């Protein structure tokens, strides 16, 4: 960091977080946007949202010099794609393979990393995708950040709108019905979890890069259930009471 590398609005040192993703029908894009919004809550965080597109793949090879340059200067890289047939999407796999060049020079070593995925099925073997993304990050020498929330929707009072309702910690999981438009992607709980995960990554990046103090937030399972309930109540409140 240089002496000029400061977010003047917040008087905070800057850290660059890039969310790079592939989306087929737009559902994963919505998840990426919420994750990026969460990272933007962190003072000093410079957040970039990059979509990997099929048209940038030629003869099975993906390449975009501008994107690779951005990732080179990023402090944290968050990887996301849909789960298709129990694996990362083909387009995103082409992007991952393009990282062979920084692999050979350890150019991404000790950058922070995280991952997220979306599927239509409740399970869909999404864990396999998160494992693929985490192994990729490990091969690049990156430091992986998992989801820090307690599980939701694991008791009789739970709902699909709970925070971390799919109980995933290696990375962020979300589920969307295949016949719904992108605007209806995920559940409210999934999108809140994405935002919380993005903020967690942003704050840990500031701690990792700039030694910004970070107080680890902790809660019991009972407190986590109360949090999900309070979010549902806020969502169900009449507009006159919420000021909307």
UniProtKB/TrEMBL annotation:
Q: Which InterPro entries match?
A: Flavodoxin/NO_synth, Flavoprotein-like_sf, FMN_Rdtase-like_dom
Name of this protein:
Flavodoxin family protein
Question: What PANTHER family does its record include?
Answer: FLAVODOXIN-RELATED PROTEIN WRBA-RELATED (PTHR30546), FLAVOPROTEIN-LIKE PROTEIN YCP4-RELATED (PTHR30546:SF23)
SUPFAM superfamilies per UniProt? Flavoproteins (SSF52218)
Domain named Flavodoxin-like: residues: 17-174
**Source organism of this protein record:** Streptomyces mauvecolor
Taxonomy, superkingdom: Bacteria
**Alphabetized Pfam families for the sequence:** FMN_red
């Amino acid at each position: 960091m240089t002496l000029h590398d400061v977010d003047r609005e917040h008087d905070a040192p800057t850290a660059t977080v890039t969310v790079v993703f592939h989306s087929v029908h737009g559902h994963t894009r919505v998840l990426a946007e919420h994750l990026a919004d969460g990272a933007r809550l962190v003072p000093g965080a410079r957040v970039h949202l990059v979509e990997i597109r099929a048209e940038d793949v030629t003869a099975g090879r993906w390449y975009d010099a501008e994107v690779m340059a951005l990732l080179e200067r990023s402090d944290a890289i968050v990887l996301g794609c849909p789960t298709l047939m129990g694996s990362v999407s083909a387009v995103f796999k082409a992007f991952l393979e393009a990282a062979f060049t920084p692999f050979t020079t350890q150019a991404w070593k000790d950058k922070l990393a995280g991952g997220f995925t979306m599927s239509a099925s409740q399970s869909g073997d999404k864990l396999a995708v998160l494992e693929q993304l985490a192994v990729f990050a490990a091969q690049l020498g990156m430091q992986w950040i998992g989801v820090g929330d307690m599980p939701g929707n694991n008791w009789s009072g739970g709902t699909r709108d709970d925070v971390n309702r799919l109980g995933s910690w290696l990375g962020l999981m979300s589920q969307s019905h295949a016949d719904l438009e992108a605007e209806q992607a995920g559940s409210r709980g999934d999108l809140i979890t994405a935002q919380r995960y993005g903020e967690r990554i942003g704050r840990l990046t500031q701690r990792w890069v700039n030694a910004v103090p970070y107080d680890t937030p902790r809660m019991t399972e009972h407190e986590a259930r109360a949090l999900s309930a309070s979010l549902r109540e806020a969502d169900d409140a009449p507009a006159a009471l919420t000021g909307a």
